[in-house]
Every structure is written in structure tokens, then in C-alpha cells.
TrEMBL record, chain A:
It comes from Haloglomus irregulare. The keyword NAD does not apply. It is found in: Cell membrane. It is a multi-pass membrane protein. This is ABC transporter permease.
TrEMBL record, chain B:
PROSITE patterns: ABC_TRANSPORTER_1 (PS00211), ABC_TRANSPORTER_2 (PS50893). Residues 1-32 are annotated as: Disordered. This is ABC transporter ATP-binding protein. Signal peptide: none annotated. It comes from the Archaea. Transmembrane segments: none annotated. Keywords: ATP-binding, Nucleotide-binding, Transport. The lineage of its organism: Archaea, Methanobacteriati, Methanobacteriota, Stenosarchaea group, Halobacteria. Residues 36-253 form the ABC transporter domain. It comes from Haloglomus irregulare. SUPFAM superfamilies: P-loop containing nucleoside triphosphate hydrolases. PANTHER family: ABC TRANSPORTER ABCH.1 (PTHR24220:SF86), IMPORT ATP-BINDING PROTEIN (PTHR24220). One of its GO terms (molecular function) is ATP hydrolysis activity. The keyword Nucleotide-binding applies.
Length: 398, 254
């Protein structure tokens, strides 16, 4: 065996014309397959084009669906992790009792941060104007808010955190002062707007310490949980503990809705990929047809090859390699076009690069490419088998 | 250039090891006896209800360097006989001897190897591949063999059949006679013991046919046996021996 390999190596080195083909000379089936495909470039090109379209369809539909799902998850992510416990207004309750708050805090322990919240509304005055704002009173703002300017403290004892649009209307910044119902507060931070969909929107609000409110019994407890699962657990347990005998609180959580939304996108994605797969199967039929045509056309030629001493296996291998090459070429073309489509997506839509370059999208590329090659191989097998197994006597009969 | 010779020596034995007939016959006895022989060969085809006996006990042998012409009317079993001689088909009964070794029991892969190493084929309609050059067509039987010498041998052979200036021409650029000479060169690429030709002059005019038959006569002089199956009386003029096949039975004519 090794002698044979050395022979092939020395030959490609010594012989200029064959040397050009280099490593390929060691794989005569590949060499012959390539030559056969290039004999009818138009037909080979059209067959490969089918695979290009199929792979493009699977990859782009898969990736676009995935991008949609990822962006939705990103957008809705926050909502799924929040649980908001408020008093049952139908029963005439306006505030949560300390026992309710304590229960929620206990349940949330280790699964997220429970933030009791007082809400109100008031006119906020600054040297340059005044505006109406939502007031939130809470002690642990960092669990819920991030700062655009300044710093959000872990524990909120004094000063005001001003929402973005309030700050813009009043022209205040960290260090300025605002007056609310006769009290002066120094602004410690301007809050950034959140992308999350949540009932707690800081943009049009001013966040104060709970002590600043005359009535400091919380009207809500917001639980910022670590994950959607934690959120559903907290919501479930709070309902169980507080609402067992009477409806004391209402619990608002969206993680189960988020699950449904994810489920829907999963379904949508599978549907899109199935559409792509149909086009790839059509491409497979096209390759099948092309291989069948070209083997039928070359029937006599294959008969001669067999007659002059080329083994069945070599003929079979060459024809299968032909189909595989069509698949690989088409697959690469499809992957390339998909990348272009993704670049276009990035260029012309507001979808972010983080979602587009998510590793899970790469998986769709790989799956689409492999599927393309496998479909081509599968379509090439029968024509190859049929051609290789024909008796040379029959093939050569005029 | 020694670098090129060394691996060639290395590959040559590997190639002949694969060659079943010479391997089976043993190195020094190979090609000394009768290269190809049919002994009491019967071939019948079952086509549904009826059984057609194409050959009814044929005995036939060809010696080294001998040019034998097989004639006979259509349907007499000529093609069947050629297919059996060429190991393209197996007899219903009887023996096909390659250098005295029965090849009738070979499986497909063994017969394919034997064909490549032992037998050259020339067809009425040439069967050259249009996409390949003359030289590439001649090396066709060796494409899967990694034979480093094949190209040089092909060029020598084309030179010998008078196509030294047509090495890189494609079949479409060649005349009928030139094509058949390329086919003859192809049949000789593996230095066979026997060349089998099916109506080699069938698609050629008289003058071209004569030139091609002269090539066959040359081939015989190299010690290769040539068997042709033909309707063309011209072939008989070049043949050392003529046999006639009628209704599956063979008899010597000359």
C-alpha cells in the first residue's frame, strides 16, 4: 500500500501536467467526477443551483426565524422575570400589609429581589419648569433600574432618581435639585429607559425613598426574579400562601405568557424550515433527474469503462462523488448567499448584531449545508448504482 | 529521473499482483501457452418460455501473434462468442481458459481485473470519450490504477499507430480511421495478450479499413493475438485463420 502511495506522489511531482492536479491525482474518482461535471457545465450548474436555492431557503428561513425568536426573547425577557404583587382592590384593599410583604419577601428569597413599592403622582418642580410625574417609593432601586447619568444606589435613603423624560423636560441632571410637594430632593441619578416591557416604567417617574411618603405602606411588591422559571415559582407560591382562604392580593406575572410566545416562535421556525426543506427536496429531485439523464447519456461510455477493466466500485464511487460535488458546490453557494442575506438583514433592519451573530444561527448554516449534501448524495445513489451495475454487454449493445 | 523510476518499479509488481490471470498462471509460464481458449462452451439465454441456445458447444483457441477472423450471419452467436472471449459474459457450461486457467468461475471483480490486464477491446463505433484527448482516451483503462507510466506508454502507442501529431486532439477532431487507431492504441495500453475487435472496419471506408487492418497485423507481430468478429470480407484477407459460426456451431473455413 505504501509503495502505491509513494508512486502516486512521485508521479505528481515528476510529471508536470499531472502535477498541477496535485493531491487530486491520488483520488481518481474525484478527478474523474470533476472532469465529468465540467463536461456539461450548464447542466451541472443548474443542478447545483437547485441545491443553492434549497440550502439558501433552509438557512435563511431558519436564521430569520431564529433571529425573530431571539429578538422577541430579548425584548420580552424582562417581563418574564418580573412578578408584581398588588393588593386585591375588589376587596377594598389599597395597600399590602407588612405580613403580605414579608411573605412575598420570604418566597422570593434566593430566587430574586423583592422590592416593596409605594406609588403616587405629583407635580415635580425644578428651577426651569414643572411637570407631572409618577412617583415610586422604594428602598432598593438597583434591582429594577439602571442609570443613564449618575449612579443608582443599592439602598435608597435620600435624594431622587429622575426618569429620563422627566429629567429632559425639567432640564435637571445629577446634582440639581427638584421640589416635590414642598420637599426638596437632590437628584442623584437620571434613570435610563428600559427596553423591557414592564408595568414599572421609570421614564416618566421620579423614584424617592419610601420614607419620603406620608403613607409608606407599599401598594405593590415587585419581585425581580433570576429567571422566568423562578418568576413562575414565586408567583405560584405567593398565590398559594396569600390567597388560600381569601383573595388578598392579585399577582401579575408574564412568564407563562412568555412561554407561550416562545412556543409560538418555535412553531413558526419549524414551519419556516419545513418550507425550506420542501425546496431542498425539489432540488434533490432535480439532481436525481440530472444524474439519471447524464448516466443514461453516458451509458455506452460507462459500458466501455467497465469493458476495459474499470471496476464497478470505481464507477459507482465516481458517480456518487459527482452528486456529492454538486451538493457541496450548491451548499457552499447557498451558505454564501445566506451570509449576504444576513449582512443585508443587519444593514437594512434595526435588528442588532448580537442577535444576528448568535451561535445558534451558525447551527442553521451547518444544518442547511449538510442537508444539501445529504440530499444530493441520496439523489445520486440510485442513478449511480443503476449505471455501475449494468452489464457492459447490455450497455454496449447497439 | 531516478526518482521517477524508483516508484515505478515499486508499483509494477503491485499491479501485476492484482492481475488474476498472470498471478494464477505463475510468472514464467504466463503468455507462453495458448492465451485464450474456449472449451465446449455452451451459452443459452432464458427469455421467458423459450430457451435460446446461442452457442452449442464451441471449441476455439487462438495462439500468440495469430490473427483470427470469426465470420457468420447475424444471429449466429458471433457477438455472444466475443463477449465470452472478452470475459464480458459467462458461459452456461464449458470453460474459458486464460493461459490455461479457467476464468468461467471468476466473479465480476476478478473478470474486470482480468479484462484490464489481459484483453484489449476495439469496437465498431470506437467508443471514444469526446471530452478527452486522444492520449487521455488511450489511458482510460488505467485511470483508476495510479499507473505512473501510462501516459508515456499511451504516447508511444499513438506514435506507433501514426498519430504522434494528434496526441492532444479530441475525437471530434479526428477522422473515422484515426479514431479507430486511437481505439487500437487504447486496447494495447495494458499490454494485453489478446485484442478482441467487434466489426473494427464496420464504420470505415475500404482504404481506411485497410489501414486499420494493417495496424492489427502489426499488433500481431508484437506477439498479441487478435480476434475479430466481422461481416467484412476484407478482414479475412489479413487474417491468418478464418472460422465461421453458424447457428451456434463453429467450423474452420481457412
Amino acid at each position: 500500500m505504501s509503495g502505491e502511495d509513494e508512486g502516486a506522489g512521485a508521479r505528481s511531482g515528476a510529471d508536470g501536467a499531472e502535477g498541477r492536479l496535485g493531491v487530486l491525482a491520488r483520488f481518481p474518482s474525484v478527478l474523474m467526477a470533476r472532469r465529468n461535471l465540467s463536461r456539461n457545465r450548464l447542466r451541472s450548474g443548474l443542478a447545483a443551483l437547485g441545491i443553492v436555492i434549497g440550502v439558501l431557503a433552509i438557512a435563511t428561513l431558519g436564521i430569520f426565524g431564529n433571529v425573530l425568536q431571539l429578538s422577541a426573547t430579548n425584548e420580552l425577557g424582562g417581563i418574564g422575570n418580573q412578578v408584581i404583587v398588588s393588593p386585591n382592590e375588589d376587596a377594598g384593599r389599597e395597600t399590602l400589609s407588612p405580613r403580605d410583604v414579608a411573605t412575598v419577601e420570604r418566597v422570593a428569597e434566593g430566587r430574586g429581589t423583592a422590592v416593596p413599592l409605594v406609588t403616587d403622582g405629583a407635580i415635580v418642580r425644578a428651577p426651569n419648569g414643572e411637570t407631572f410625574a409618577q412617583l415610586y417609593g422604594l428602598d432598593r432601586p438597583r434591582a429594577l433600574f439602571t442609570a443613564r447619568e449618575g449612579r443608582v444606589p443599592e439602598f435608597h435613603r435620600q435624594g431622587a432618581l429622575v426618569g429620563e423624560s422627566v429629567a429632559d423636560r425639567l432640564g435637571v441632571q445629577p446634582g440639581s435639585a427638584v421640589e416635590i410637594e414642598g420637599q426638596r430632593f437632590r437628584v442623584i441619578a437620571v434613570l435610563a429607559e428600559t427596553d423591557d416591557i414592564s408595568p414599572i416604567q421609570p421614564s416618566n417617574a421620579v423614584v424617592l425613598p419610601r420614607d419620603a411618603f406620608a403613607q409608606s405602606a407599599p401598594s405593590q411588591v415587585v419581585v425581580q426574579a433570576g429567571s422566568g422559571e423562578d418568576a413562575s415559582y414565586v408567583a405560584g407560591t405567593v398565590r398559594e400562601r396569600l390567597n388560600a382562604r381569601e383573595q388578598r392580593v392579585s399577582v401579575f406575572e408574564l412568564s407563562s405568557i412568555l412561554d407561550r410566545i416562545n412556543e409560538f416562535f418555535g412553531l413558526l421556525n419549524a414551519f419556516l424550515i419545513a418550507l425550506g426543506a420542501v425546496s431542498l427536496i425539489v432540488a434533490g429531485v432535480a439532481i436525481f433527474n440530472v444524474m439519471l439523464m447524464s448516466t443514461t447519456e453516458r451509458r455506452g461510455e460507462i459500458g466501455v469503462l467497465r469493458a476495459v477493466g474499470v471496476q464497478k466500485g470505481d464507477v459507482l464511487r465516481t458517480l456518487v462523488v459527482e452528486a456529492a460535488l454538486l451538493g457541496v458546490l450548491g451548499g457552499l453557494g447557498g451558505v454564501l448567499l445566506t451570509l449576504l442575506a444576513v449582512v443585508a438583514l443587519l444593514q437594512f433592519t434595526p435588528i442588532g448584531a448580537d442577535v444576528v451573530f448568535d451561535p445558534s444561527n451558525g447551527a442553521y448554516l451547518v444544518v442547511a449545508f449538510s442537508f444539501g449534501v445529504v440530499i444530493s448524495l441520496a439523489s445520486g445513489l440510485y442513478p449511480a448504482y443503476k449505471a455501475a451495475n449494468e452489464e457492459p454487454v447490455d450497455a454496449l449493445r447497439d | 529521473m531516478s526518482g521517477r523510476d524508483a516508484p515505478a518499479d515499486g508499483t509494477a509488481p503491485g499491479r501485476s499482483d492484482d492481475s488474476t490471470p498472470s498471478g494464477a498462471a505463475g510468472g514464467d509460464t504466463a503468455r507462453t501457452g495458448t492465451p485464450l481458449e474456449l472449451v465446449d462452451v455452451v451459452k443459452q439465454y432464458d427469455s421467458g418460455a423459450e430457451t435460446v441456445r446461442a452457442l452449442k458447444g464451441v471449441d476455439f483457441a487462438v495462439e500468440r501473434g495469430e490473427f483470427v477472423s470469426v465470420i457468420g450471419p447475424s444471429g449466429s452467436g458471433k457477438s455472444t462468442m466475443l463477449n465470452l472471449l472478452g470475459l464480458l459474459d459467462v458461459p452456461t457450461s464449458g470453460e474459458v481458459l486464460l493461459d490455461g486457467v479457467d476464468a468461467a468461475t471468476y466473479d465480476d471483480a476478478e473478470r474486470t481485473d482480468a479484462r484490464r490486464e489481459y484483453i484489449g477491446f476495439v469496437f465498431q463505433s470506437f467508443y471514444l470519450i469526446d471530452a478527452l484527448t486522444a492520449t487521455e482516451n488511450v489511458t482510460l483503462p488505467t485511470v483508476y490504477e495510479r499507473d505512473p507510466e501510462a501516459r508515456a506508454r499511451a504516447e508511444d502507442l499513438l506514435e506507433r499507430v501514426g498519430l504522434g501529431d494528434r496526441l492532444d486532439h479530441r475525437p471530434t477532431q479526428l477522422s473515422g480511421g484515426q479514431k479507430q487507431r486511437v481505439a487500437i492504441a487504447r486496447s494495447l495500453i495494458n499490454e494485453p495478450a489478446v485484442v478482441l475487435a467487434d466489426e473494427p472496419t464496420g464504420n470505415l471506408d475500404q482504404d481506411t479499413g485497410t489501414a486499420v487492418l494493417e495496424e492489427f497485423a502489426d499488433v500481431c507481430e508484437q506477439g498479441v493475438a487478435v480476434v475479430t468478429v466481422t461481416h467484412d470480407p476484407l478482414v479475412n484477407e489479413f487474417a491468418d485463420r478464418v472460422v465461421e459460426l453458424t447457428d451456434g456451431v463453429i467450423r474452420d473455413v481457412r
